[in-house]
């Protein structure tokens, strides 16, 4: 199981960061059972009281998000996430895909200059490769930001962990023809609204 840290607002795989993200990997394992049980409990309540249906993909995403959030709170000195400068908000987005071209889920967190959560979202999305699902996550996050009260108060910085998508949206690489209409739609909004992508 990959472990993710939402310390940057989105997710970073511990394996790729080594031990620099948290003081001791052994302490992470203490959080996992509680994150799983807590998320199962909340998900169970949604099923029982709000007539939701069981979705394993969303449940997996929520467990990882819960674990990452708790680790961020516990190990606040984590260098993974840097707050945006004054006058900006940072939207961190990520995707989850079980298999290539399989059903996926997206999520994101908008944070202010002090790291406070302004809004967050998670939803299911259709089939597609991870890069496409990441683009969809950015689009959904941007639309939610533009519809929110924060749109008039902050300029937006978008962070995602897919270098390919960042390259497409910073125009340092050409997107494949199948993704180009979505990429150019996002680029148009990014330019018009003075947003930046990292």
From TrEMBL:
Pfam family, one: RVT_3
Positions of transmembrane segments: 24-43
Domain RNase H type-1: 100-173
CDD domains (alphabetical): RNase_H_like
Protein's UniProt keywords contain Transmembrane: yes
InterPro entries to which the protein is assigned, alphabetical: RNase_H-like, RNase_H-like_dom_plant, RNaseH_domain, RNaseH_sf
Protein name: RNase H type-1 domain-containing protein
Species of provenance: Hibiscus sabdariffa
UniProt lineage: Eukaryota, Viridiplantae, Streptophyta, Embryophyta, Tracheophyta
């Amino acid at each position: 199981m990959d472990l993710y840290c939402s310390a940057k607002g989105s997710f970073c795989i511990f394996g790729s960061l080594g031990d620099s993200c948290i003081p001791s990997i052994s302490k992470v394992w203490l959080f996992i059972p509680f994150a799983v049980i807590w998320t199962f409990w909340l998900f169970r309540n949604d099923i029982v009281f709000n007539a939701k249906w069981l979705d394993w993909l969303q449940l997996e995403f929520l467990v990882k998000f819960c674990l990452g959030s708790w680790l961020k709170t516990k190990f606040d000195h984590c260098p993974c996430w840097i707050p945006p400068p004054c006058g900006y908000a940072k939207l961190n987005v990520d995707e989850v895909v079980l298999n290539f071209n399989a059903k996926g889920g997206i999520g994101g967190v908008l944070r202010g200059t002090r790291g406070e959560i302004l809004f967050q979202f998670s939803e299911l999305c259709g089939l597609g490769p991870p890069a496409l699902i990441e683009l969809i996550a950015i689009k959904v996050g941007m639309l939610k930001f533009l519809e929110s009260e924060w749109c008039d108060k902050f300029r937006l910085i978008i962070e995602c962990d897919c270098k390919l998508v960042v390259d497409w949206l910073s125009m340092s690489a050409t997107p494949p023809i199948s993704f180009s209409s979505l990429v150019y739609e996002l680029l148009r909004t990014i330019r018009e609204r003075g947003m930046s992508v990292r």
